[in-house]
Structures are given as structure tokens and as C-alpha cells.
Amino acid sequence: MAVVAAEGMVQEFIWEVTGPDISTMMLLSVLRDQLQAQGFDISFSCAADACGGFDFRHALPVGNAPDMHVDLGDFHYLSAVASREDGDAYAALMVSQGGSTGFVHLALVQPVGSATPPVVQSSRSPDLDDEPAVLVPDPVSGDLIAQLMATGSATLDDLQFETGASRLSGERYASLVALSEFLAENPARRVVLVGHTDAMGSLDGNIALSEARAAAVRSFLTQEMGVSAGQIEAEGIGFLSPRASNATADGREANRRVEVVLADPG
């Protein structure tokens, strides 16, 4: 395998996909198709031991738990290249799995003149005239809807809550832009917003707080973004479904979240 020195704007993304039918092969297939649809040609692909196992995985800066998990016996890697007007763009993808959660790391190197900035808003935002040329992987972007349709649920990861707080800042979060557009385009669809907390405090108090977080998101969508109230419900389950350890500050922050679940997935 040849080594290629790439120059340009470097962007890295880490995200999770959850669901009972998640597998590394399924994730790899979906993401490979997305890359190819955006003009990338796959230059190299390997799996687990065929990549070099432990040495290969730990030679790559793909992030650490809880954000990124790589099972040494179950991971796939691929690299790809695409021709742009002002030079070549490169992508490197690492996909693995832990239980019912898939973990993805994407590194992009693009010519500075054509590279989009790190994804901070929906690919369908009215502030953008054209679809971005870069793969949009993070659930805070339009890919949130792809995850929602594929697994029935997705986390609104760009929302931020402090311990004990449920108020939103009023910002037009990318995840809420994407969700509001999806619901406007699909008026027969209904979703449930599910609030979660860290484990600080009592269960009863955290259930009430998680409900308040979900309700705050529902109010923002209906009052500020024009979503029909009949399309959204709000519930809360406190700290009963953590996605990270509550023993660390980073884990507690990850657990303070709101997820969207399709109420009519059929």
C-alpha cells in the first residue's frame, strides 16, 4: 500500500449510531455509498486483522472512549480520494461497534479553497445556497434524519444542558433545523422527544428534569420553528438510560441529552 502525503484543511468527525441491527459492515456499506455518491473513489479498504490489528488501530488518531470505541476484532477502515477543481480531497473512515452502538470516525483533508468548515448547521439550512461537497456525517446535520430513518432514533447532540438546567439558549441548532424540515416535509410523521439526565440527584427529580428538557425542545420547535404540535410528544426517563459513565464529567455531559424517536416508524 502506498503512502500519500495530503495537504489541505483537516476536519475530523466522531459520531455514534444506535439500533438493534447495527453492524460494522452495514455502517461501512452506507458510508461508502455516501462517499462514492460525492465523487470519492475508494483507494484502500481492510478489516480488523487484515489491516494489522492492534498496531494498525493504535497508529491512527481516531479518538478515545467514550466518544470513540474500536473493537480490535471488529473494525473496518477505508480511505478514498476525490478530484476537486483546486486539488484532491482525501477521506479516511474507521467504523467499529460496541453492543448495539456503532462508532464512526471520519477524517477529511480537502483543498483550502473548496473545503467547507466543520459542520455546524443542516445541509438543508436556508443559509446555504448549495449542498456542501463534503460528506455530512454528524447527527447534528442533515444526516440526523438518515440515522432517524435507519434506526428509529437519533440524538440531538448539538443541544447543551448544564446539570440541573433545562433551558435552551434560543440558538437555531442544526439538529432542530433538520428535524423541523423533516417534519414539515412529512406532516403524517410523529416523533417523541425523550429527555435524559446525568445521575446527580434523585431519580424522581431527574425524571422531572428530563421531561422539562424534552418539553423545552418541543416548545422551541413548535413556537420558534413552526412545527405542528400534533407531530411531537415530550417524555423523560431521567438517568435510566446512560450512554457513558456518570463517574466522569465528560460522561455526565454526554448523558445530558434529548433524543428523537419515530413514533410511527412503519
Give your account of this protein's structure.
With 266 residues, the protein is an alpha+beta fold. Helices cover 26% and strands 26% of the residues. The chain is built from six helices and nine strands. The longest helix is centred in the last third of the chain and has 22 residues. The relative contact order is 0.14.
Mean pLDDT: 80
Helical run tally = 6
* Strand line-up in the sheet with most strands: 1-5-4-3-2
Query: What is the number of beta strands?
Result: 9
Order of helices and strands: EHEHEEEHEHEHEHE
What characterizes the major β-sheet?
5 strands, antiparallel
Which regions contain 5 or more consecutive residues with pLDDT less than 50? 115-142
Assess the beta-strand content as a share of residues.
25-35%
Measure the end-to-end span. Answer: 45 Å
Structural class: alpha+beta
The general outline is globular
Helical fraction: 25-40%
Radius of gyration: 19 Å
